[in-house]
Amino acid sequence: THVTPTAEGKPVTATAAMSSHKKAKKSKSAQEILAAIAVGIIAFCAPNEESGVVMRIISALLSLAALFFASLGLELVQEYRMSKKVEKKNPFEIKMTRVELPTKPPGGVHEAAADMAKHLQGFNVTLTSEIKQTETGFQVTEGNNRLRAKVANGTAIGWEQGGAAWEEQRDAWMSAVWAAPRVQSVLGTDWMGMATEVAEAEVALAPAEDDGPLTTSTVVRIGGLASKPELNGKIGTVTKGVNEAGRYGVRIEGSKDALSVHRRNLSALPPLDTLGVSIPLIRSFRATFADLTTKLTVDQAVKGVLRPLTGRAHLSLARSLHSRSKADEAGKPFAAP
């Protein structure tokens, strides 16, 4: 690239000089055309030698007016062309969005996923979005758009940034983001009417929150442990009643020894549901959600598809269908003992 010094001493590349020359040439061509038009009008309107002074003055004024309007028209045309020019976008430019999120997903993973557009300030998450961890939260990439989410620190021990409980909630947020586009797709299908309002029968069957004492042999789920977060989500059985410290003896599935767990970290599970679903129901489910369940693990399918269907009632799929008296074309119920 050749460089030419300017009067101010600043170098100008040959490319820039050529671009400037082209613009000047284009502007000069327009001026030449305008001048030619004006000369033609003047020549056409010019009076002969025998015309009086008044006619000559009138002819000159008309020529000046023609020149003025032609110049004005040329400026308007140039402004119109400039307004139509669209600035070329850089195809590799990354648009960054930053959001701050509360420590825990409001309402849990399912509820946060259903309301994810609000949490992420309208950032569009799709089935192909890339989600990865960061030191302060997580990052979502969708095409040329990128979102950095900062998960707030908790005040409890272990809930500070990088703590075990904080990381558990960060992972819950990431699960909610991953499930969000699937939740929206599931709710949009309204399969079997499951995405609409909860039926009255489901409300009556929904398990109530119970913080009361637990009896032995009660099946429980462990959650909220900061000292041993790897136990959160595990299922166990109460083997020993509450002691003076409010702790129960709980034996986790697959373990021989019982653990001492506080009541606040135990959630009683309802009795085992004996209802099952029919083959026609499985066929209908597979046909409706094949695109959403392909290559998913069981846990992912539960979070991304089943929970959106049954999350409002907190019942199993079979129990929800049974409470709604859903049946196939032959009149046989989709769910039965």
UniProtKB/TrEMBL annotation:
It comes from the Eukaryota. The keyword Transmembrane helix applies. The keyword Transmembrane helix applies. Keywords: Membrane, Transmembrane, Transmembrane helix. Residues 1-23 are annotated as: Disordered. The chain crosses the membrane at residues 53-77. This is Uncharacterized protein. It comes from Coccolithus braarudii.
